[in-house]
Amino acid sequence: MNTSVNIISIKAEIRERLLAWYDDHQRTLPWRARHGQTPNPYHVYLSEVMLQQTTVATVKAYFERFINKWPRLENLAAASLDEILVEWQGLGYYSRARNLHKAANFLSRMLPFPQIPEDLIVLPGVGDYTAAAVSSIAFDYPIIPVDGNIMRVFARVFTVPISLPKLKDEITKIAESIACKNRSGDFAQALMDLGATLCKPKDPQCTMCPLKTVCKAYQIERVSDFPKLKLKTEKPIRYGTAFVLIHEDKILFERRPEKGLLGGMAGLPTTPWEQNPLSEIAAFEPENGVEWETLPKAIKHTFTHFHLYLSIKISISKRPPKGLWIASDAMETIALPTVMKKVIKEIPGFFKT
Ligand code: SF4
Q1: Residue to probe by mutation, ligand 1, list 158, 206, 213, 216, most atoms within 8 Å of CB
Q2: Are 137 and 39 in contact, with CB atoms under 8 Å apart?
Q3: Ligand 1 centre from 45 Cα, in Å?
Q4: Cα–Cα distance between 65 and 318 in angstroms, integer?
Q5: 65-69, 81-85, 292-296: which has the minimum mean pLDDT?
Q6: Pocket-testing residue among 13, 218, 219, ligand 1, by greatest number of atoms within 8 A of Cβ
Q7: Which residue of 22, 73, 112, 153 is surrounded by the most CB atoms within 10 Å?
Q8: How far apart are the CA of 217 and the centre of ligand 1, in A?
Q9: Which residue is closest in CA terms to ligand 1's atom 2?
Q10: Is 237-345 in CATH node 3.60.160.10?
Q11: Is 3-225 a domain of CATH 3.40.50.1970?
Q12: How do residues 211-244 score in pLDDT, each as one tens digit?
């Protein structure tokens, strides 16, 4: 048999083996249609937005809360941004919630739900991966969304000898050549499940794997060499100061600019977050002239691209300036970024959060 015929038959075998395995071993997930059910595009879309940057285990409870509160896309579209941000608290990457709000409004006006990746990718917050995932899972469009799990599976099965970021292009080509015309959504989800349950980054369970007879890395006993890893770079550290101005039982917040980190959310006034720990000259110091007490402990918070150390200055205001004053018992009704909650927890005996 020549090489190209051989590769075609390997790909056919991968599809066949994986789909058979999926029929018996698929994970039960709240957004996933059971065998014989038609997938709900709203559920698939909402779960894929939540799963961007967040684990399945964390997303489950959030997804169920959202669906209980907003059972249909039209209900979500009718919700205010603040209501969505409150329910989103703790999931992080709040731009996803803002995009969800905009996209739900857009989608509810253009129903039926768009089916092909080219029509989905125009939605705010939807990139290549999410468009492919929704299209394939909800509508059986023949495409494979390439995420970290799927990259790992294919890098091992085909012993792809390159590392990120070029690895993604190579795996995308493999994915295009192997996508199923029938049961495309099941095949994509089977790959996701295989990557999450057996073909894990550490300690893959190859002896239980449906692909072990076609997996090159397993056959040459070099599974731990794939995917090739790129060298890790250390996250930089940034420093800043948060100002906590208190008046009676209220604290002064500001609305952060729409664009940028934690965009559009309520936050405490802070200095810019700089790489130099000594550059904490207050760019914003509410009530100039009041005396600020610096708390002994700074808080540490880690964002995707950097670690942040925020020192905390507190003052009591007798003549409060205009601004977004929030009472201690209303803290839970507004969407506050986790980093700001950490600051508030440092104020002894004042807030309930
Ligand atoms: S045999 Fe092992 S390395 Fe290959 S796909 Fe299966 S779990 Fe992954």
Answers
A1: 206
A2: yes
A3: 29
A4: 41
A5: 292-296
A6: 218
A7: 153
A8: 7
A9: 206
A10: no
A11: no
A12: 999 999 999 999 999 999 876 778 899 999 999 9
